[in-house]
Amino acid sequence: MTISKKNSTKDADLHKIDFSYDSQVFDILLHASFGKLFGSLSPAAVNVAIFDWLCNLYIAPAKQFDITKKGAKNFYDFLVFIMLLNEFHPLKDHQKSYSKSNDDPRFKDEAWDAFPFNIYKEGFLTYNDWLNEATTNIRGVTKHHRQVVNFVARQVLDMYSPSNYLLTNPKVLQATLEEGGMNLVRGLNNYLEDAYRDYNNLPPVGTEDFKVGLNIAITPGKVVYKNQLIELIQYEPTTKKVYAEPLLIVPAWIMKYYILDLSQQNSLVKYLVGKGHAVFIISWKNPGTAERNIGFDDYVNLGILNSIDTINKIIPNKKIQAAGYCLGGTLLAITAAYMARRSDDRLKSLTLFAAQVDFKDPGELSFFIDQSQVTYMEDLMWENGYLEGSQMAFAFNMLRSNDLIWSRMVNKNLLGKRRPLNDLMSWNADATRLPYKMHSQYLRKLFLNNDLTYGRFKVNGKRVTLADLTVPIFVVSTRKDHVSPWKSVHKIHLFTHTDITFVLTTGGHNVGIVNEPGSKKSRAYQIGVRKKDDRHISGSKFLKTSPEQDGSWWPAWDEWLKEHSSTKVNSPNIGNAKEGVEVICDAPGEYVLER
């Protein structure tokens, strides 16, 4: 198998590269096989990080002494703790975990304070503390390699946490004694059922209670436009009058759109329609092999620009308020900058939900981003032309392995209890694939090279810059976001010269956005406004000076949209047959149902 090649990697898009040697094709297929067996981490990237750590540690005798001294002190204190039978309380630094928290959720149960479980716990945390010392603060090791080594060490150590095993977990032992081992029988049944579903590529247990179009994603609407990449949904108005400027929502292509239209009580779409907004939303196709060469320009042209063209035919002569979520927000910001460069003024405002434009500090995702890792990811996608959603989900789960892997394993397989799924968890299990060309481009151009903020990013062959944006921007970030860290999201202030309203809300990447008013959960947010000519306020200063407000941020955004809208008009018709915009089918459409 020989593929011709022009060896020009300047664009750094593997999909454009042909290969001169059969051996290179063999290597790609070999990497793809590794990925199926060992997950999405590049062995080369991990080994290079470990080698960097070892080499610098080898020539740092003072650091070696500090590590040895730390180990000896921890071991001595642990022995004292054992000998004095709990009369001596270990030093606080022994309680540190890799999350740098003194309150490890794995050991919150009071049963961990009884003998011998307190010894198991203290032994684990003591070693955890020492290993953290051994993998950090070594001069000469690059920040990325230090993070990778620490991350890998944490993953390995967490496998051996006493909370993960029957004989060393007091809660599991108690349940086993009280139930005569039936918890283990249920746990085995849960394990076999999950293994069967994983092997047959079936959705997790509990998702059958949530059906798209039946009890989730049921806000009434119609698909009014469709191409090979998107379906555009127009929602039916529920008010006689609507704001003249329609609202277009752009979800990320790595998720199903209906996270914004879950159950009726927490549907952002339903909330907006009820407030008098004419709402449209993009539903991305779940790509397969045929879509392997769909790239970033296609997502701009076939996705956002075609949607804007269609909305203009339905509601002519009106500018559009546009909102984007996660990478959909990044895509929207890039598209808006491209439109501004072309003097296309059809956008009235921008709203970005948990969306980064600067990727210098992408948070914990940086563990998976370097040249070797991205190349390895491209090789995983090469054979099929896409990345399975399950592979992406595995990477995200590793970032919070205690919560998303080990604690769930204990509950399901040792305690024999399944956590009931809610609508958001069911949506999270409805993973999407990622097309080869697009995934390669955004990993390299955004995460790896940060081309957008350096002014190198091109759309349709033309460079774009965020400094061209003049429309007002509403930005939402979340405090516990490990996908789009809020301080990274806040950096949009550095690259634009327009009015920005910035919101920092409680919750994580998903829960912070699905943040409906009236929820029983505690909600709060901070909000601040930077006018075009105001001086820059850092994220830290914003955090200190912006008062906290109780409740959901949704009403604040609704008020902002109203302020940037003109008068209300009669509710528009669905579609516009005279302009060739026909109703195709009912919402939620067909693309969202593809698995």
Low-confidence stretches: 1-15, 86-101
Q: Tell me, rounded to a whole number, the average pLDDT.
A: 89
Overall body shape: globular
- Terminal residue distance: 31 Å
Q: Remind me, CATH topology of the domain at 221-360 and 450-593?
A: Rossmann fold
Count of helical regions? 19
**Radius of gyration of CA atoms, rounded to a whole number:** 26 Å
In terms of DSSP E residues, the strand content is: 5-15%
Total strand segments: 17
User: Which class do the helix and strand fractions yield?
Assistant: alpha/beta
What would you note in describing this structure?
The chain has 595 residues and is of the alpha/beta class. Among the domains are: 46-175, no CATH class; 221-360 and 450-593, Rossmann fold (3-Layer(aba) Sandwich), CATH 3.40.50. It is 41% helix and 12% strand. It is built from 19 helices and 17 strands. The protein has helices at 22-38, 43-58, 61-83, 117-134, 143-159, 170-179, 182-199, 268-274, 296-314, 327-341, 371-382, 389-399, 401-414, 423-429, 436-448, 486-489, 492-495, 539-545, 554-563, and strands at residues 221-226, 230-235, 241-243, 247-250, 279-284, 320-325, 347-353, 386-387, 434-435, 458-459, 462-463, 473-478, 500-505, 524-530, 548-550, 568-570, 585-586. Strands 15-14-13-12-7-6-4-5-2-1-17 form an 11-stranded mixed beta sheet, sandwiched between helices. It has a two-stranded antiparallel sheet with strand order 3-16. The relative contact order is 0.13. Mean pLDDT is 89; it is low at 1-15 and 86-101.
